Amino acid sequence: MQIEHALRAVNKGGTALGIKASNGVVIVTEKKLPTPLIDESSIEKISVITETIGMVYAGVGPDFRLILRKARRQAELYKLRYHEPIPVSQCAREIANIMQEYTQSGGVRPFGISLLVAGYDHNGPQLYQVDPSGSFWAWKASSIGKNSDNAKTFLEKRYSDSISLEDAINTAILTLKEGFEGEMDENNIEIGIVDENKKFKCLKPSEIADYLNEIGD
Amino acid sequence: MQIEHALRAVNKGGTALGIKASNGVVIVTEKKLPTPLIDESSIEKISVITETIGMVYAGVGPDFRLILRKARRQAELYKLRYHEPIPVSQCAREIANIMQEYTQSGGVRPFGISLLVAGYDHNGPQLYQVDPSGSFWAWKASSIGKNSDNAKTFLEKRYSDSISLEDAINTAILTLKEGFEGEMDENNIEIGIVDENKKFKCLKPSEIADYLNEIGD
Amino acid sequence: MQIEHALRAVNKGGTALGIKASNGVVIVTEKKLPTPLIDESSIEKISVITETIGMVYAGVGPDFRLILRKARRQAELYKLRYHEPIPVSQCAREIANIMQEYTQSGGVRPFGISLLVAGYDHNGPQLYQVDPSGSFWAWKASSIGKNSDNAKTFLEKRYSDSISLEDAINTAILTLKEGFEGEMDENNIEIGIVDENKKFKCLKPSEIADYLNEIGD
Amino acid sequence: MQIEHALRAVNKGGTALGIKASNGVVIVTEKKLPTPLIDESSIEKISVITETIGMVYAGVGPDFRLILRKARRQAELYKLRYHEPIPVSQCAREIANIMQEYTQSGGVRPFGISLLVAGYDHNGPQLYQVDPSGSFWAWKASSIGKNSDNAKTFLEKRYSDSISLEDAINTAILTLKEGFEGEMDENNIEIGIVDENKKFKCLKPSEIADYLNEIGD
Amino acid sequence: MQIEHALRAVNKGGTALGIKASNGVVIVTEKKLPTPLIDESSIEKISVITETIGMVYAGVGPDFRLILRKARRQAELYKLRYHEPIPVSQCAREIANIMQEYTQSGGVRPFGISLLVAGYDHNGPQLYQVDPSGSFWAWKASSIGKNSDNAKTFLEKRYSDSISLEDAINTAILTLKEGFEGEMDENNIEIGIVDENKKFKCLKPSEIADYLNEIGD
Amino acid sequence: MQIEHALRAVNKGGTALGIKASNGVVIVTEKKLPTPLIDESSIEKISVITETIGMVYAGVGPDFRLILRKARRQAELYKLRYHEPIPVSQCAREIANIMQEYTQSGGVRPFGISLLVAGYDHNGPQLYQVDPSGSFWAWKASSIGKNSDNAKTFLEKRYSDSISLEDAINTAILTLKEGFEGEMDENNIEIGIVDENKKFKCLKPSEIADYLNEIGD
Amino acid sequence: MQIEHALRAVNKGGTALGIKASNGVVIVTEKKLPTPLIDESSIEKISVITETIGMVYAGVGPDFRLILRKARRQAELYKLRYHEPIPVSQCAREIANIMQEYTQSGGVRPFGISLLVAGYDHNGPQLYQVDPSGSFWAWKASSIGKNSDNAKTFLEKRYSDSISLEDAINTAILTLKEGFEGEMDENNIEIGIVDENKKFKCLKPSEIADYLNEIGD
User: Fold this and answer.
1) What is the pTM of this model?
2) Which of C99-103, E200-204, F33-37 ranks highest by mean pLDDT?
3) CA neighbor of D59 nearest in space, from D88, D93, D99
4) Residue D162 pLDDT
5) How far apart are CA G67 and CA G129, in angstroms?
6) What does the alpha-carbon distance between residue B149 and residue D33 come to, in Å, rounded to a whole number?
7) Distance from CA of F69 to the nearest CA of E (A)
8) How many CB pairs under 8 A join C and D?
9) Which Gene3D superfamilies does this one have (chains A, B, C, D, E, F, G) (predicted)?
10) Considering only CB atoms, which chain C residues are within 8 Å of D93?
11) What is the number of other CB atoms lying within 10 angstroms of the CB of residue G37?
C-alpha cells in the first residue's frame, strides 16, 4: 500500500525520458513551472552523480535530493575502495538497494520517486530505471512520470539499436513534445547527455535552443 | 496525509511575500494581531539567519523557531568548515533537507510552515521558497500563507526582471495591501531587505512608515 | 488533535491574567478551591523562575510543575554560561521551545497548560504568554484559562500604555472580579508583581487584602 | 482517558481520610476484607516513608507498593544530599512528580491510586493529597476512595483549625464510621498519627480499640 | 482489560488451596489430567522456592515457570546479600512486585496466574496469595482457581486459628474433595507442607494415600 | 489470541505421535507430501537434538527449525557447563521456556508448533509434549497435529505401562494408520526411537518397511 | 496475513521451474518484459550464489536482490570457516532461516519471493524450493510463480528419476512453453544448469536458441 502511494506520487511527477544510443545516452525532462515567477535557471531536475553518471527523477523532489546525496556517497566510497569510478550498473544497483530497504523496514516510508540513471563506462552507454519498490532494469529507452505510458509507446515505434546520440537527442525531444502542455523552449526542459568521452553533462539553454530550432525546421 | 495537514496549517498563516529585484531582495509579511493587547514590537516574523540571509514564514510559529535554530546551526557549521558565509542556495537546501527528513522518519511530524529565504551572495540576490515536503525552488517573486494565490497572480502581472529594489519594496507593499484586512500601518507589517552590501536587515517602523506614506500619496 | 485536547484542558483551568505597566508587571490568578478543606496557603499558582521572573498557569497543575522545573534549569544554565540573569524574552523562548518539542516528538503528549511569564530586565517590564503549541508572544495585557475571552475584552477597554503598576494591580483585580464566582478575598486569589527593583514577588494575603479594601471603597 | 481509568480505580478503593490538627496529623483507612480468612494483621494500608512521614492510599494496592518504594528512595537521596530529613511538602512533591511523569510518557500507564501523605516538620503538621494526574495540594482534612465525597462533606462541617490531635483522631474515626459497612473494630481500620515528636506511627489494635470504646461510650 | 484476561485464565486453572495452621502451613492442588496418558508423576504444580518456602499456582502453567525462576533468583540474591534465608513475606513481596511491573510496562502482558506462597520463618507459619495485578495478602486459609469461591466458603466455616497442621491437612483435602470431579487419589492431587522444622516438602504419593485412607474411614 | 492462531497452525500440521515403552520411546509422524515431486528422502520431520534426545513437530516447519537450533544450543551449553548430557526433562523445559517467552514479549509472535520430545537418560525413557503457550508435560503416549484427538483416544485404549518398545512401535504405526489418508509406506512416515542404549535414531526406510510388512501380515 | 500478502506477490511473479536430473539440475524462468524497450541482456532472474549453486525467484525483484546478497555472505562465511564450499542443502537452509526470521520479528515484513535453489555437491544434484514462510524442501521438480500449479501437474506426468540433464532441459522448456504468453525465444527465457563438473552456469542466448530449435523440430 505504501508502495502504491509512492507510485501515485511518481505518476503525478513531470514527464522524463531517456534513450540509449549506440554512442551515448540522453535523458530529458520537462520542468513543471506552475508560474513564471519561479526562477527556471535554479531548477535542476537532472543531476550529476559522478563525472560519468547523471540521473533524472519523476515524483517528490525532496525525496530525490536525499537519494542523490546517498548515491553520491556510495559512488565516493566505491572510488575510495577500488580506485576507479563506480560502474553505471553498480551505481544503479546501490540506489535500488537503498530504495528497497525503505520498503521493508519500519519507521520509514518508501521513496516517492522513479529515476532514470544514465552513464557511460567500459561496458558502453547504459540507461537504468529505478522504481520505488527498488526494482531496476536496463532500458534501451524509457519514460517515467505523468505521460510515461504514451511516451513509451512513442519510443517503441521510433527506437532502433543503431540510433546515434544526435538522433536520440532529437527523438527524445520529439517524444517529450508529444505530451507537452504549452510551448516547449530552452527554459522549460532539461537535457543531459553522456557520450564516448564518458563525461555526463547537462546541455546549456543555448544548446537546447539549437536542437529545438533544428527540430522546428 | 501528514503533509496535507501541514499545508493546511501553512495556508491559515498570515500572508508573506518576497520579490527578487535586480539589486536586492525584499520580503514582507503581515503580522496577524488578533487583539491590540499583543505587543507588536516584540513580534518578529522575519528573522535573520546569517548576516546576509533572512527568512519569513507562514504557518505554525513554534515550528518556525525550531527550524530557525537548526538553520543557524547549519550556517555556523558551514562557516567553521569553509571559512566563508554559507551561500543562499546552500542555506535553503540545508533547511529543505531537514524538512524532508521530518516527512519520512517515524516518531516526528512534518513542519507546519512554508518559508521564504532571502539573501545576497557572490551569485547576486536570491529568493527561495521552502515547503513542508522539503521542496525548495528559487523564485523571482512568490507568496506563502493565506492569500498567496491572489498575491502570486498580482505579482505575475507586475514583475519584471529589471525591477529595482526600491520599486520591489513598493510592489511588495502594494501586493500585500490587496488582501490586507483592515488598515495597514508600520506596526502590522514587517519588511526585510538585502541589497548589494550583502547585509540583510529588517526595516524600522519609521522606515516602513515612509514607504507607506510614499505609496499613499 | 492532541493540541486541541491540551487547549481544552487550558480552557477549563482557573482564570489568570497579566498587565504590563509602564514601571512593572502584575499577574493575578484565582485559586480554584472546590472545598474549604484545602489549605489555601499551600497553593501557589504563581511561581518564581528566577529572582526577576515569575509565571502563572492555567490548565493541568502537574504539567505546570514539570515545566517550572525545566524553566528553572534553563535559567540556571544561562546564568552559569553568561554570568548574568536570563533575560525575560529568552526565558519565555526556552519554555516555548520545550513546549513545541512536546508537540512534534513521539512518545510524549503536549503540555496541558498556558503560561503568563512576567519579568523585568534591561529591556524594561515584560509580559509573555506561552501556549501548548509552543507559541509565545509579548503582550501588553492578556488572560488565560476559563474566562479569558471576556477578560481580554475587558482589558482592551481599560488598558493604556502609560498605566502605572499600582493602577495595573487594581485593574487586574477588577478584571478578575468580573467573572469571579463567589466572594473574592485575599485567600482565593494570588498576585505576583515585579517593578523597577527587578525583584519578582508574590503579594502576601495582607497586602492583597489592602488592595481589595481599596477597590471595595 | 487513561487518567479517568485511574480515577475510577481510586474511587473503587477503600475509604481513607486524614485530618491536620493544630499539633499533629491523623490518617485513617478502612481495610477492605472480603473474607475473615485474610490475616488482617498482615495488611498495612498505611505505610511509613520516613521517620516523620507516613501515607495511606485508595486504589490499586500493587501500584501503591511501587510508589512507596520510589518515595522511600527519593527520601533517602534527599537525606544523603542535604543531611536532614526530607520536608513533608518536598516528599509529596517528589511523589507527585513521579505520578505526573507516568501520565505523559509512552509505554507506561498512570498510577491507579490517590494518596494522603501526613508528616510533621519544621513547618508544623502537614497533610497532602496526591492524585493520579500528579496534582498535589495541602489539605486541612480530606478523604479519598469509595465514600470520599460524603466524608469530605462530613469533615467540612466538623473541622476547625484549632482542633487537637486527640479530637482529630476521634473525628476521623467518626467520619469513617459514617459510611462503614458492617461493624467497625480494631482490626478492620488502620490509624496513623504524627505529633510534635515528629515520629509517624501506626496505632496498635489495642490503641485503636481504646479510641473505639471511648467513642462508643 | 489485560488484567481481566489474566484473571479469567486464573479462574480456568485447577483448584488450589492453602491453610495456615498453628504449627505449619499446608497447600494442596488438584492436578488437571485430561487424559490418563499424561505421566502424573512428572507434573509438579507445587514447587519449592527455597528450603523453607513453597508455592502452588492456578492458571497458565508456563507463566508459572517463569515466575518460579524469577522468585528463586530473588531468593538467592537475598541470601547472598544478607546471609540468611529470605523471609516468607519478603519473598511474596518480591514476586508481587515483579507481577505488578508486568501490568504497568509496555511490551509485556500480565502473568496469567495466581499463587499461594507457603513458608515458615522466625515469624512463624505464613500463607500468602499473589494475584495477576501484583496484589498480595497474608491469609489464614485461601483458595485460587476454578472452584475457589466455594472452597473459600467451605474454609471459612471450618477454619480456626488453633488448628493443628495434621487437622489442616485433612481439612484441606476435604475442601478440595468438595468440588473434585471424579475420584480423588494419591496421583491426582499434590500436597505441600512446612512445619516447625522450617523445611517445605511435597508429600509422596504413599503419604497422600495414607491421608486419603484416614479420611475415607 | 496469538496463541489461538498458533494452535490453529498446529492443528493443521501433519499428525505425529509418541509412545513411552518400558524400555524405550518411539515417535512417528506422517510426512505430508502434496505432490510426488518432492524428494521425500530430504524431509526430516523428526530431528535429533542430542545423541540421546530427538523430537518431532506438528505445525509451521520453519518455526520448528528455529526452535531446533535454539534447543541444540541450550543442550550444548548444558554439556559445557556440567560435563554431562542434558537430561530429557531439562531439555524439554528449556524449549518450553523459550516458547513461553515468545508469548509474553512484544515484537515477536508465539511459535506455531507443538513438539514431542523423546529421550532416555538416568531416569529411564521419557516423552514430553511442548505446546505454543510453553506448557510441557511428560506423557505415556500422546499425539499432536491434525488427527491428534482421535489418535489419543486410540492410544488410551491400547496403552499399558509394561508395553515393550517393539510393541510400542507397532502400536504407533497402527495408530497413525487409523487416520492416514492414502496408502502408508516407508517413504511417507518417519519413525524415531531411543532404547536402553540411550542413542536416539531415525529408522531407515528399509527398517520401516519391515515393520509395515509385519503389521500387514 | 503478512505471509499471505507475500504469497500473492509470489503468485504474480513470472513462472520459474526446476528439474533435478540424474546427472545435474536445470532451472528455467520466463523474463517478464512488458516492453521491448527493456534491455533483455541486462536482466538476470537466475543468479549465481557460489560456483556450484544458483537460484531463480518468482515475486518481488528487489527483495530477491537482498536475499541474494545475504545468501552470498552466508556462503562466504561458510567457506572461511570450513575451507570448503557450502553444501547445497546448507545454503538453502541458511536462506530459509533468514526468511523465517523476517516472518517472526517486528519492524520488518516477510520477503515477497519464492526461490528455486539448484546445485551439485558431494551429495549429487539437488533442487530446493524456499517459500516466504521460510519453509524449504528438496524437490525432484517444482515450479513457482504465475502458472506454477499447471506447471507442477505437467512435471508430475513427465518426470522420471532417471531423466538425463539434456532431457530435463528439454522438458523444462516444454513445460514453461505450456503457459507461455506469446512466442518463446532465446531472449525471453533464462536457463541455468549445473552438472557433474559442479559448476553452475547460465546458458547463453545462442545455447538457448539451440535447445529451442531442437524442440521446434
Assistant:
1) 0.72
2) E200-204
3) D99
4) 94
5) 14
6) 72
7) 21
8) 64
9) Glutamine Phosphoribosylpyrophosphate, subunit 1, domain 1 (3.60.20.10)
10) 65
11) 21
- Only one residue has cell 527528513, namely B101
Query: What distance in Å separates the CA atoms of residue D90 and residue D56, rounded to the nearest whole number?
Result: 17
Q: Which of B37, B60, B106 sits opposite C140 (nearest CB)?
A: B37
Name which of E21, E35, E49 is nearest E166 in CA terms.
E21
Q: Are A77 and A142 in contact (CB under 8 A)?
A: no
ipTM of the complex: 0.75
Both ends of chain A: CA-CA distance in Å? 47
Closest-CA distance, D4 to chain E, in angstroms, reads: 14
Distance of CA F50 to the CA centre of its chain: 14
How far off is chain D from C13, nearest CA to CA, in Å? 13
Distance from CA of B111 to the nearest CA of C (A): 9
Cell 512445619 appears where?
E195
Label residue E80 by pLDDT band (50, 70, 90): very high
Q: What is the pLDDT of residue G93?
A: 94
Segment G187-216 mean pLDDT = 94
Dihedral, B179, B181, B182, B185 alpha carbons, nearest 10: -60
**Chain B positions touching chain C (beta carbons under 8 Å):** 35-39, 41-43, 60-63, 65-66, 69, 106-109
For the ranges A131-145, B104-118, C14-28, the lowest mean pLDDT is seen at B104-118
Q: Is the pLDDT of residue C184 over 70?
A: yes
- DSSP-H helix ranges across chain D: 2-12, 61-82, 88-104, 148-158, 165-178, 205-216
Which one of B105, B135, B159 has the shortest CB-CB distance to A61? B135
B27's grid cell: 520580503
Residue C105, pLDDT score: 74
pLDDT at A39 over 90: no
The residues, ordered by sequence, that sit 6+ positions from A116 with a Cβ below 8 Å of its Cβ are A16, A17, A18, A27, A55, A56, A57, A127, A128, A129, A139, A142, A144
Residue A137: which of G43, G63, G109 has the nearest Cβ? G43
Tell me how far CA of residue F207 lies from CA of A123, A166, F204, in angstroms. Answer: 60, 76, 5
Report d(CA D97, CA C31) in Å as an integer. Answer: 21
Q: What are phi and psi of B55, to 5 degrees?
A: -150, 160
Are A and G close enough to touch, i.e. 3+ CB pairs under 8 angstroms? yes
For residues E10 and E15, what is the distance between their CA atoms, to the nearest angstrom?
Answer: 10
CA distances A200 to A58, A119, A211, Å, are 19, 7, 18
What mean pLDDT, rounded, does chain C reach?
92
User: Nearest to residue A168, comparing CAs of A94, A118, A104?
Assistant: A118
> Do residues A30 and A15 make contact, with C-beta atoms less than 8 angstroms apart?
yes
Q: Are E191 and E172 in contact (CB under 8 A)?
A: yes
Band the pLDDT of C106: cuts 50, 70, 90. low
Distance of CA C84 to the CA centre of its chain: 23
The residue of chain G nearest to residue A135, with distances taken between CA atoms, is G62
Domains of chain E: 2-216 (3.60.20.10)
Which helix (H) or strand (E) segment holds residue C130: the answer is: strand C124-130
As a whole number of angstroms, the distance between CA G110 and CA G116 comes to 17
Number of continuous H segments (helices) and E segments (strands) in chain E: 6, 10
